[in-house]
Amino acid sequence: MFDQQSLAVIFVSLMALSTLLYVILDGYDLGVGMLLPIEKKEHADTMIASIGPFWDANETWLVFAVGLLLIAFPAAYNLILKALYLPSVVMLIGLILRGVAFDFRAKAAVSHRKTWDKTFKAGSFIAALSQGYILGIYVTGFEQSWMATCFAIMSAFGVACAYMLIGACWLVMKTNGELQQTAIKYAQRCVAITFIGVVLVSGLNLWVNPEVYEKWFTWPYGLFLLPIPMVCCIAFFLCFNVLRHLKKMPEHGSGLPFFITVFIFTLSFFGLSFSFFPDIVPNQLTIWQSVAAPESLNFILWGAFIVVPTILAYTIYSYRVFWGKADELNYY
Amino acid sequence: MLETEMLSRIQFALNISFHILFPTITIALCWFLVFFKVRYDQTQHPVWMRAYRFWVKVFALTFALGVVSGITMSFQFGTNWPGYMEKVGNIAGPLLGYEVLTAFFLEATFLGIMLFGMKKVSAKVHTFATIVVAIGTTLSAFWILSLNSWMHTPTGFEIRDGVVFPVDWFAVIFNPSFPYRFFHMMIASGLTASFLVAGLSAYRLLLGDEKQAPKLTLKVGLTVAVILAPLQAFVGDLHGLNTFEHQPQKVAAMEGAWETGTNAPLLLFAIPDEETRTNSYELGIPNLASWILTHKADGEIKGLNDFIDNHPPVKPVFYGFRVMVGMGLLMILVAWLARFQLYKQQKVSKGLLKVLVWMSFSGWIATLAGWYVTEIGRQPYLVSGILTVKEAVTDIAAENVVISLTMYVVVYLCLLVAYLHTIFLLAKRAVKVEEFENEELTNVTSPYREDEWENNHV
């Protein structure tokens, strides 16, 4: 049995893991949704086929992350969700619309297909933008000022763009021919904008949160933290170059941009998490202050130890089943 | 304008009512799919594959609606009912957590293989994936009904400093009303799915579909309904007895009994009035309520006046109960009549087919009515005897809830219309499809060419 202190760390790590997995996994399928061409039915079909088998499980990581917050840090859960009431409802509406549009488009009358495609695209945008907005509000510690709002709006566009980047890279990996070339073009644009976005958001974050600034630039934290932005810059540069090469030789290493982007997402996520640790609500509540009863956490932890590796195993199995280019898939 | 509490209650009721429609179908429909798939594996007869392919489409659409409408729930606990997690989070949290861990990921991942992987994996693995999804949906119901039952009949806990702590997890999970509620809901799901299967098959037959598949699925649907409909009456009765033991005020509202007394009649109809605390226009069968609940004609039933200010609103519980039972009886009657006709004459008459079409979604009405009885019957408590609804509600501005509620109402109405429209559209399209293609008959594993208008996914 673990004591309350270590349980707080274990659960916040689990939560971080599932949030990161959500951002990567649903990130790419939201990104594909935002890039959906309404007029080119064939491309739209292939794009949707490429995310078909995965989107539902991807979204489950969000439910799990929110569930962990609810289970392990109920005080923080109440505080965060109350402060984010409207943005979270908007996000949910977005997720509802895209989730069902996906299925309806294949089954509704042909004349309605375009409407469902538009719904899918709009839902993806709504969900991505509101997630970015939520992140922005969260980072500023739910401050109510015009500057915080501006920051949140910027963060909304930043996150949407990052999702489009990983979505485009997913398509580069999963498609070929004309669609792949279009995806490369999208990815090139997004990688540049995302880079600027990450730099801006990180800079502003240091500026609005003096505590974060202190953490990054004091011994010995700085020694571990400062390599993160450097490696991140190299990764962006690498991604940009690989995309340029892929334009001429799309057969070799078409999966590389996706994995580099996953790496960038992971680095940025850890950079952000370390900035706030051990706060679960920035500047208001630490994980120690809000952790739930050890009886409950131990009960769920033993299950998690067995189940989470199983989940990862069959998730990997599912990705292996659907490995390869999406247009080779046979649906019915 | 309404207050935050009432608005939050309406919003939660709307969300959960909309949500429950879809799992009610998918939990049991997935076991139908398992049956079709296993029969196909055994016989290699293409008709089972046709049954599977049609119903897997209905399943996929229904499942998607269930998934997206379910996500809102885990948010609303925090946004609208913060007092709930503060007070009983130590119990509710792990149960919800186990639902996500053991059920959600399982069904979501294997659903991908089930819907898209038929040609990517072997037939065995595909059947296995279908079974895993069915187990996943059932497990999900297990955990959520465990938590729901605990809110009605809490056990296995202690209260320290005003917060609930678990003492015995076995007692928490298998609390006194859980087995009844679980089986009652599972059978409700089975009935909802079997009437949908029978109803849509009847619809296809009425449109002139001469193929084997709708005839076969009509038979399967009716056979399941014939068994489950009377079984549900029996299990429902057991559940009622359990409620009588643990929540007598709920049963009093269901029966419309104001005064405690013996020889209570079973009211077929009445208009209960909470102002005067009497019923008007009573029509009842003498002694029957006492007999059902205590197995004695002069058994005592506690009346609502024993629980003044501490019992649920009477009207919705009283009427809801009658809608549920009435629908259940109608289901027994129609299922037995139609199955008997099928047995005697090898087909169901046109009139009865029409009735079946009208009853395609009868399970929804009975299920919702039943849920209203049991959930409104828990009022004024959120968790019986521990936490009232008033104590749990958020303090956010009512305007915010108005905005979110409006968005939900608009989106859900549109989706419900689109769903019903699409379900019947799928049936109409299936009518036009050829019986079997030659290649299906000669080589059952060869891929099947879809018609142009029948889109290639899911």
Key traits:
heterodimer, A: 332 residues, mainly alpha, two-stranded antiparallel sheet, 14 helices, 2 strands, 81% helix, B: 458 residues, 71% helix, 6% strand, disordered C terminus
What topology emerges from the helices and strands here?
The complex is a heterodimer of chains A (332) and B (458).
Chain A: H1 4-35, H2 41-51, H3 55-72, H4 74-83, H5 85-107, H6 113-139, H7 146-174, H8 178-208, H9 210-216, H10 221-225, H11 227-248, H12 256-276, E1 279-281, E2 285-286, H13 287-290, H14 294-321
Antiparallel strand pairs in A: 1-2
Helix pairs in contact in A: 1-3, 1-6, 1-7, 1-12, 3-4, 5-6, 6-7, 7-8, 7-12, 8-9, 8-11, 11-12
Chain B: H1 4-43, H2 46-80, H3 82-116, H4 123-152, E1 157-160, E2 163-166, H5 169-173, H6 178-206, H7 212-246, H8 248-255, E3 266-273, E4 278-285, H9 288-294, H10 314-345, H11 350-358, H12 362-376, E5 381-383, E6 387-388, H13 389-392, H14 398-432, H15 438-442
Antiparallel strand pairs in B: 1-2, 3-4, 5-6
